[in-house]
Amino acid sequence: MADMVSIFMSIGLNEQKAKETLKNEALSSTLKKAIEQARGLLGSASIDKTAATMLYNMVTRLKDPTRLSFLTEYIITRKINSELQLSAALDFIKSHPQENLDRLEFEAACGVGVVVTPEQIEDAVELIIRKHKDQLLAERYRFNMGILMGEARTALKWADGKIVKNEVDMQVLHLLGPKTEADLEKKPKVYFYSVFLWHTHNPFSTKKKVHKKWKNYKTEGYVVTPNTMNLLKKHLEETGGQVRTRFPPEPNGILHIGHAKAINFNFGYAKANNGICFLRYDDTNPEKEEEKYFTAIKEMVEWLGYKPYAVTHASDQFQLLYDLAVDLIRRGHAYVCHQRGEELKGHNIPPSPWRERPVEESLLLFDRMRKGMFAEGEVTLRMKMVMEDGKMDPVAYRIKYTPHHRTGDTWCIYPTYDYTHCLCDSIENITHSLCTKEFQARRSSYFWLCNALDLYCPVQWEYGRLNLTYTVVSKRKIIKLVETGIVRDWDDPRLFTLTALRRRGFPPQAINNFCARVGVTVAQTTMEPHLLEACVREVLNDTAPRAMAILEPLKVTITNLPTSTEVRVPDFPANEAKGSHVVPFSKTIFIEQSDFREVMEKGYKRLTPDQPVGLRHAGYVISVQRVIKVRDHSLSLCELEVTCASSDSVEKPKAFIHWVSDPLRCEVRLYESLFLHKNPEDPAEVPAGFLSDINPNSLTVIGSALVDRSVGKAKVFDKFQFERVGYFSLDPDSTSEKLVFNRTVTLKEDPGKI
């Protein structure tokens, strides 16, 4: 194995890529032969980088290994030296399966020996620029330059793409001149849907129109069969033209911030169009599914403010899905295959030797699969189709001897996502199957399967995922974090699962607002956490009542306070009509240690021996009379003795600070980013892996904080603004003896600022 790795690395593959290649036995064998043949042609010379890349690309895409020597020769002799030529060569070979190829015809089809001069490139581009001159002058640099490049590449098929692009750029610059300030203004971003705030009447409004609910057949790529219009007519009769969407999570993990976008889009689009949205569990893999995930998913959907029209399960349709699989076999579109799982991994998998087995034989074997007469992995049911990513004959059913959480031991064969998803959409009469961009490669298989079974075919629409920096959302990686003790569980407030965000104190409205601002685009969106936190602050500023808490207490005795009293504190100082609460005010109060300095410093506005400070809401200004220190070698600060005066009777102090009197003791947990780098999963940024990138200061626990008594009856997840400190939420770990608060976010202002 080490020898093979070295051979593959000799043509420029890194060690990881070489080892991955070795996992595909057929690919490894073919690549080794190609390298040996290339070395035979070169003699003592080494394979240069361009030829090595071409060689690897050729081997991974070559369907007919008998043409290996033929193509290797053309690559090593530099007769084929571009990706365009290689693609043309592979297409020619595929369409000419005869044993003896006509070399002249092959070379003509691949552009062998064709030389495109700079003068030819210049003349061709000049003609194209002249054709679009008026529109270019009108739109300037907002014109879609891709049109120019597309026409140039068509006219100059075998020219070097970089040289063509440089010529296009130069001639455009010559025509339009340098970019002006107007040219540099950003063009407004175009959304598939413009998403407005969740609580508005119409949270989703269409800017770029998708298909009307009964016009599926007008969608790009939609396959129209002789029965399509009849099926659409029946669908319209059953739904009354109602928009129907679905949110279809796998119940094998907890939802995260990316799912929040999917929930908002699916439920929001249906709501905006007076439609309905299903919550459908894709429960087709009993090995990974647990009841706690079903419960948590529904809970989070409802927490975000959405109510599913119905909660359904893929397992509701197991019998119907099985019957449809039998029908698919009868129609000649599926077969039972004995290739093992490891043989089906990777690309360029050789066709199954059982692909053309008789229909009756596949029906008999599929029935035996159903009856548990084969071992796991021994046989599968595969569909006769090629997916957009080149994957051939995806698996429809596999054997798993694991009891299902809903159906128990009734089934030992389970359908795959590629088989189940589109059929459940069809069964539920979904109109818009909204999914993330990685499923675009499955769109053709989605249409193919519905049409192969002559069923109503919904339309799949893809949009870009939502990712955040400084975090991981992969289920496997979160499990690693839990198992290694880095985080407590899936709801650790340093994670970006929805349960974690709820525990940290993020309001659902803020998450929905964030998703609305991100919008729905085709491109993947990667945002920084502070943008989400800004949405959190906006909501909490209007909804979180104020309280006072001291994280690092300093005892203060007011020597001249005549008597203990009570102070009324507004819940929302900017709008006192929204309510207030009462807190005690006695001779003994506590302030933050950082709000006192024994030695005056320039710019410091709070309490010093020579500078008084106001007490928020109390109506008093205090002045230091005595600093009391512990009598040991450190002489550390212990407490202060002060006098007070009515704020009406003295000069206005430079600052007012918060305080507590007769407080409750509590624990406060302060959170920072869990990871040190923006992209902890990127090997280029974190070579040692995400577990090596943990921020040692991501959690600070303050066990002896103090909070005013107004929060004493708070319930779990109740939220407060601790004045001058931040926004906090009551944690589920709280008991009647000790409250525990999580810091949700800091205040907008610098924590050290008055």
TrEMBL record:
CDD domains: GlnRS_core (cd00807). Its EC number is 6.1.1.18. Residues 3-161, 164-189 form the Glutaminyl-tRNA synthetase class Ib non-specific RNA-binding domain. Transmembrane segments: none annotated. It catalyses: tRNA(Gln) + L-glutamine + ATP = L-glutaminyl-tRNA(Gln) + AMP + diphosphate. Residues 656-731 form the tRNA synthetases class I (E and Q) anti-codon binding domain. It holds the Pfam family tRNA-synt_1c_C. It is found in: Cytoplasm, Cytosol. GO terms for biological process: glutaminyl-tRNA aminoacylation. One of its GO terms (cellular component) is aminoacyl-tRNA synthetase multienzyme complex. Residues 242-541 form the Glutamyl/glutaminyl-tRNA synthetase class Ib catalytic domain. One of its GO terms (molecular function) is glutamine-tRNA ligase activity. Keywords: Acetylation, Aminoacyl-tRNA synthetase, ATP-binding, Cytoplasm, Ligase, Nucleotide-binding, Phosphoprotein, Protein biosynthesis. Residues 544-629 form the Glutamyl/glutaminyl-tRNA synthetase class Ib anti-codon binding domain. Monomer. Part of a multisubunit complex that groups tRNA ligases for Arg (RARS1), Asp (DARS1), Gln (QARS1), Ile (IARS1), Leu (LARS1), Lys (KARS1), Met (MARS1) the bifunctional ligase for Glu and Pro (EPRS1) and the auxiliary subunits AIMP1/p43, AIMP2/p38 and EEF1E1/p18. Interacts with RARS1. Part of a complex composed of RARS1, QARS1 and AIMP1. Belongs to the class-I aminoacyl-tRNA synthetase family. Glutamine--tRNA ligase. Plays a critical role in brain development. This is Glutamine--tRNA ligase.
